[in-house]
Every structure is written in C-alpha cells, then in structure tokens.
Specification:
alpha/beta, Alpha-Beta Plaits, Rossmann fold, 4-stranded antiparallel beta sheet, 9 helices
C-alpha cells in the first residue's frame, strides 16, 4: 500500500499536541524525530522524551487529499497560516520481507544461537533459541542484549534458577533455560512483554519452566542463583535496593542497558553488595557483572 507523509518542524512543547491533531485529521501513524539528529537515550519511566526542535511526521494513505490536511493545520492555534511543512511520497515496500531479510541467525559465546523461524538452524548441535522480532524488546541485535547473551553462555547454569528483571521478549530467560537452567522467572511492567515471553517460551519448548509476573503480582521473597536486568541506567540506579536482594549469597548479577559513560554511577549503586567484575563494553554500551557478597 502506498503512503504519503507530512513533516512539520516544531518545538518540544508543541509536538505531542500537533501529533494528536494529525491523528484527528486521518493520519495512520505519527512519529517524532529530532530535527538536529541528537539522540535521546533514556526517558524516565512513563515519560515521552522529545527534543528542543522536533519533527512531527504524519503518515497518510497516498489517496488522502493533503490540501485538506494542510488547511486544517493552518487553522490550528499552534501554527500560523504560513507554517513550514514538507510533503513527500513513501516508497511502497513489502515491509515484512524487508525486515525479514535483515534478521538472520546470530551466535553468542561458544554455544548459543538466536535464530528466526524462517531460517535454517546453522548448527543443530548448538543451543538454539528460535525467536522472531515482535512487539517486545529483545532479539539479540542490540549490543546490550548481545552482551547479556554472551555472559549467560559463559556461565554454568545447570540446575540453577534465574530471574530476568525486565524480561521483554523473554530472550534472556529462554536462553538461560536452554543453556541448562532449571527454572527462570520473568518480570516486566508491560503486559505485552509478558505475553511475548510466554509465546516465545512455548515456541522453544520451555514454557513449563518459565514463570512470568507483573511487578505487583510477583511472589514475595523471590531469590535466584542468577539475576539479569537489561533495562536502563536510571531504573537500574533507582531500583538497586530491590534488585540487589534478588541474588542469593554468592549468586550472580548481570546488568546492561547502560551507556559506557553511565557505568561508574551504576556500579557505585551496587558496589556495597557485590564483588564487581571489570566492565565490558560493546559499541558504546556496557555490561556490569558481579557476585553477591
């Protein structure tokens, strides 16, 4: 299906209201981009972080009469009749095949492969996790996920229990189970992540060994031999008192979702309770691991 888009440059304060207006005028979707291409890495929980100058982009069916959309926008109280905008066509592609072509089996450590369902397994004797891209974060393509998977592959998980704090797609918990862990527990604030983890666990034949919980529903006094949290630096610092008590004495802790520039502050939040290993970096991201005292 062909599409057409309109792009309006505005301010942080006005971006969301203009996005709502575009949806009201018939946009199929609205996205926000930084006008100056400056990234925002870490929104606070529940916060939509925007930039000082933001491009609001509305996507419309190509048959939409865009003159009518522009006329509506010219009457919007946040815009002048001569506001600046750009309208352009979007190339019609088979987007499903587009991302399928760019997602392929990936190896982590010495034993572990993450494989999409439409590809042949490269090594049938390896530990293979079948995982397709979906709504929840975590397919192995991001450096933080790759760092966590490589760490799990390096551990002796046989018979151990693991907590995946912020489980997303369930990739880390499922990988741990297929690497020998006896039980895994996934915790996430997003019900869609819980469902994605459940579906992926069933696809990989480990659903009977994976328990999934929203935070307010999880059992009290949860403890595990290994705890992994691939979230963001801010929540890792804020939740350090909670996360620090999850590993058993001499249990392992793995943290990621952290920029290299944030490693020192996150490490400081856990240094009293853990003997920490040297920080491992990959493409400006890093992983912090340690053993509970």
């Amino acid at each position: 299906m062909p599409w057409i888009q309109i792009k309006i440059t505005t301010t942080n304060a006005n971006a969301e209201e203009l996005g709502d207006a575009l949806m009201e005028y018939g946009a199929a979707s609205v996205t926000f981009e930084d006008t100056h291409d400056n990234p925002v890495f870490e929104p606070l929980p529940g916060e939509t972080r925007l930039w000082g100058d933001t491009d609001v982009i509305g996507l419309f069916d190509a048959e939409t009469e865009m003159n009518g959309v522009v006329a509506h926008l010219q009457c919007h109280p946040l815009l002048t009749p001569h506001f600046h905008y750009q309208i352009g066509q979007i190339e019609d592609k088979d987007w499903e095949r587009e991302w399928m072509a760019n997602f392929h089996p990936m190896r982590f450590g010495s034993r572990l492969w993450i494989c999409p369902s439409w590809c042949d397994v490269p090594d049938p004797t390896a530990v293979n996790v079948m995982l397709d891209p979906g709504l929840a974060f975590g397919t192995g393509t991001h450096p933080t996920t790759a760092l966590c998977l490589a760490w799990l592959d390096s551990l002796d998980l046989k018979g151990k229990t693991l907590i995946d704090f912020g489980c997303g797609s369930g990739i880390l918990a499922i990988a741990a189970l297929k690497l020998g862990a006896a039980q895994a527990i996934g915790i996430d604030i997003d019900p869609q992540a819980i469902q994605a983890s459940r579906d992926n666990a069933q696809r990989n034949g480990v659903a009977d060994r994976l328990s999934l919980w929203l935070p307010h529903q999880q059992p009290e006094n949860l403890r595990a031999d290994v705890v992994i949290a691939n979230i963001l630096a801010g929540p890792l610092r804020e939740l350090a008192p909670l996360i620090s008590i999850l590993p058993k004495p001499q249990g392992y802790l793995g943290l990621s979702g952290i920029l290299a520039s944030q490693a020192a502050s996150v490490s400081a939040a856990y240094a009293d309770a853990f003997n920490l290993d040297p920080v491992v970096e990959k493409e400006e991201w890093c992983r912090i691991t340690g053993i509970r005292r």
